[in-house]
Amino acid sequence: xxxxxxxxxxxxxxxxxxxxxxxxxGNVFGWTADRAASFDVLDxxxxxxxxxxxxxxxxxxxxxxxxGGESETIIGEWFAERRNRDSVVLATxxxxxxxxxxxxxxxxxxxxxxxLQRLQTDRIDLYYAxxxxxxxxxxETVAVFSELVDSGKVRAIGVSNYTADRVAEWFRIARDGxxxxxxxxxxxYNLVERDFExxxxxxxxxxxxxAVFPYFSLAKGFLAxxxxxxxxxxxxxxxxxxxxxxxxxxxxxxxxLEALDAAAAAHDAPVAAVSLAWLxxxxxxxxxxxxxxxxEQLPALLASLSLELSDAELANITAASA
Length: 322
Known about the structure:
- Helices cover 39% and strands 12% of the residues.
- The chain is of the alpha/beta class.
- The model is unreliable at 1-5 (pLDDT under 50).
- The longest helix is centred in the C-terminal third of the chain and has 17 residues, at 251-267.
């Protein structure tokens, strides 16, 4: 693979946190990856140069037999066994755990304590408001997140799945009240989902110096090149999200895959690595988030850390996805 060396470390907004520019998504831990597989993936991610892990208190309450908190519990057991908490920058989120729904202050405090217990740690490096809560005055949410920073339980604040107007309002309230400002934004963004560029979120990220961490970076596997025809989504061993990924298989999706294939061939790199490198090289993006449910999926993600696309390659891929 042609490489420009490992990517430089990146700072999370205005915080004092710096990371290798790839986030390992923890949504699969305790769902499609059991405890042993999750430990293997986490071990290999750290060994491969990664150090930023992203989870949420609600992962994975949607899975049959789960009640929420499974991902955090596995990560916490991994920290305890490996004694490596200081080697990891840890992000988690609040508002979707069935026992801790929404962003009312008492709920956020209780949810943070529950997350800390499951994660077997004394602090959350980056704590996100996972989804906006229209039932709770934003002033109250802003204040309680800042309070958690003052208490030492949280090092930095992030916002996920908010509109641009609401992010701007969070900043206005925080400045007026003298509260800690958010440093990170987590939107839905990838080569086939590009609303982030035009819905005001990128503009507010630029204005406020937010580090952007896109989720569904590989469009549920489509941008890894795994789904080339409809039959791939129903093949044995396909991901539970394969059907949703296959929905991108239209003329535009095929054009994107063709452009990704060309860059992948030029760099002798996996398609997934090219997709993640494209995203990492977009304005405001600090690191894409991608998950691996087994060891086989991880090398393609890690390869993105050392892959730099040329301006011409970036333009070709961008044009294909327009």
